[in-house]
Amino acid sequence: MKDRYLDFVNSPFGASVARSIGLPQPEVLRRHAQGRAEFDGIAAIGAGPSPTLFEPLLALLTGLGMTSVAHESALGWLPVAARHGAMSGRFEPRSPGAAPNDQVQALIFDATGITDSTQLHALYGFFHDAIRSVAKSGRIVVLGRQPQSCTSPRAWTAQRALEGMTRSLGKEARGGISSNLIQVEPGADIDGALRFLLSPRSAYVSGQVVHIDTTPVTQPADWNQPLAGKRALVTGAARGIGAAIAQVLADRGAHVIGLDVPQAQDALDQTMLALEDAWPSQGAHTAIVADIAAPEAPETIAAALLAMGGIDIVVHNAGITRDKTIAKMTEAAWDSVIDVNLSAQERIDDLLLDQNVLHAGGRIIAVSSISGIAGNLGQTNYATSKAGVIGRVQSMVEALRARGITINAVAPGFIETQMTARIPLGLREAGRRMNSMSQGGQPVDVAETIAWLASPACAGITGNVVRVCGQSLIGA
Amino acid sequence: MKDRYLDFVNSPFGASVARSIGLPQPEVLRRHAQGRAEFDGIAAIGAGPSPTLFEPLLALLTGLGMTSVAHESALGWLPVAARHGAMSGRFEPRSPGAAPNDQVQALIFDATGITDSTQLHALYGFFHDAIRSVAKSGRIVVLGRQPQSCTSPRAWTAQRALEGMTRSLGKEARGGISSNLIQVEPGADIDGALRFLLSPRSAYVSGQVVHIDTTPVTQPADWNQPLAGKRALVTGAARGIGAAIAQVLADRGAHVIGLDVPQAQDALDQTMLALEDAWPSQGAHTAIVADIAAPEAPETIAAALLAMGGIDIVVHNAGITRDKTIAKMTEAAWDSVIDVNLSAQERIDDLLLDQNVLHAGGRIIAVSSISGIAGNLGQTNYATSKAGVIGRVQSMVEALRARGITINAVAPGFIETQMTARIPLGLREAGRRMNSMSQGGQPVDVAETIAWLASPACAGITGNVVRVCGQSLIGA
Q: The Ketoreductase domain covers which part of the protein (chains A, B) (predicted)?
């Protein structure tokens, strides 16, 4: 779970060794920490022709306490800022050797008005001038349209092209800088997605495309406690990523119902008690001991949750691996992985939805995996189950929309856990370094992404698969 | 362009060195060669519950001269075979140490009837028993349904899960064995897709998902000359992948109109003359010298093609690279790459379609790239253009459907060309080995995939992006 190489290259001696012999130099990622400002610094704004999001973007940045500077591609930003009484100025490209205080925290490009490939030139102008000015662990966000919702083939083409740009920028930026694309339907609320992708909470999310629809959004009264008053079921909550999810949801104000198997009861109890210790004002959380694969599990779980008045959030995190190549895999290894990771989720959700245990306006978030996207040697069972999880999410979007319920998946890449700590060193090092952050992610990175998708601000985000992989090289 | 390592590990001495120190052991891929049977050997058949494709599958295999054996999951195959008077038998799992003549050329699994995750078990049974029996350069094909066309969420989920299975099998199989998934709409004609994916012509296509719709198909009178009587425009035809495309299209019977820039005129002329030498019965092919990026190019090209009576196939292969990180990239490098690789295609196709230069029932095939999918360091311009090409393909599907025109993209991975020969050795070796074939592809692999999509048998294949990458590890 400890990345000794990361520590080494971030020591003065290690850094000079790494530089001189050309080793990867992963940055210690800035993550959110209690008592440290979540947002600060300057955002540089660029735009293509006819940008549409300056007003909500300016309102958001002002609300976050960030200032802005406008690149020459976005000079229309300045009158908007003036009208709102916000400080702004022109972006000046950083001269070589300039002091770090010339740096900006974020580059934000409004590409929503781009309707032809020739207009992509504006992206070149902005990122050519500005990319060297981004601080370490800074953020690149491109705002565009969903290609298939464009009315002309030329607009669809140009909007689809943005993916190639955003992903390439993520591979060039280095220094813990992430690069993501948000596809905004006209009139959609951008705050939920943009806050997250600008925040240190999204430290390990890069190279992703997030789509926001026009579902009306109720912004949380307190952005630090967006889940206040919500009840959240987390399966597999005893340890690892599940425990991190429980912690982050509790930190955001949720009452957590942690579920795990009987064998993990002690660890589960400790995890749940630790939540109470850390956030005493919220009182005790709830532990449910059950094997989700048992035939009676859906009934048992639904009954327990109904007795509390139902829930608002379901996080399907419980999962197992039984790795072997298909030729050597036992039938039991196949069946148990498919059942725990996929079929059990189906049975449980069917009952939670039939009996309205999950409230209208609720959230379902399922944990998929990079293996479900790319396939993996020795994991036919696991990859099949995790590809199925993506299918579940996509298949349920429309039926759940009528009830205001969103359903999304997160797909972790290489995350530092007890599971990955058992991988042989050579493979582990390859897994850690083969991404744009040159390091593995932490369980909290997955948990933050889930907590974000669970928030009221994400009412317009459904059917998305968000990888938490540091923009892993590995994909399909 | 020469992979010396591939030659080395396939020598007796090299093979023993590679085995003893654990080096990758790429297989010399079986490719189609004049005078060698394209199809032979045995296909082992597996199936989930309620398979729907036994009849067309049996007819196809019989037509190809292949025999079949039925796995216990597909015992319903035997009466179908008997009804058609086809030889068939039961599949017997290969015992350890059995002679190579126990091997099968292909594993084909009919998963179209799978409607629930619990039924995925049938895939385990078949591939567990059969994967060791596949000969080198053999084929794995799973036949399923398009998830989003399934009526129940459970069926959608299970069908989506097949992707994880197929991709994992591709990573486990080794020995030049490919693994692909075909999503078949009920009633769609499977011959075009299945023939290609069973053939040595698809040597470097693995880990792909191909979707077939129900558009009626006219099967070619001669499967070796499916493009007889067709005229095909190939841009960038002078050298490399473009020249290979011209050769393969000519081999399939097409009259090729090769286009390239004035600077490449000599090479273009030689390429076109070589076609005439190789296939003298087709007479002379046509060279057009033009810079596709020139403002007058669409008119020039359209006029030349109209004078011949129009065309049936357009292959947008011409492309350039001008690699630099965005901070160091010149404006000219950005503009020229976007223009040549993307905007010029748009201008040309608009005119070819407006003036009906491309006949009804025609084919458009555009060359994208792995960089357009995953993004690439130093290629913001190229990756943006190639992501845009994917957008073009997807955006034009519905408008072209009314005219019976299909549009698809191929996305090459690491292909051995003069361009990749200039990559420094270390990077080149990484690029070559980081895929399920442990080697780069050949230009002919891209060309064969394009010729396949151009054929009359592919009337039901449109809007697809087919990677020719040996199932590269790199993806998005």
A: 230-418
